[in-house]
Amino acid sequence: LDAFLRAQEDRLADNPALAGLLRRMSMKTTARNQFAGTVKAVDIGSVSAQATIALKSGDEITATLTSAAAKRLGLKNGQEAL
What we know:
Helix content: 25-40%
Largest sheet: 4 strands, antiparallel
Strand content: 25-35%
Structural class: alpha+beta
Radius of gyration: 14 Å
Strand order of the largest sheet: 3-2-1-4
Number of strands: 4
Number of helices: 3
Shape: globular
Order of helices and strands: HHEEEHE
Low-confidence stretches: none
């Protein structure tokens, strides 16, 4: 099982488009609450974090989440986000 999971992680690392698609498909939210964009800024504090997302329209939104969630997601500038 460990070897299989490592192989899948390697495959996703080599195919970021597929990784992004799977990440979008696994989101626990409704379609009307989803915004696709690019991470413009990340500020991770001791308890909470804020991620600013630049939308294709030119608008920006800021999401607040726990620091643990931001670290688990590996948020970084330039990353595709949903």
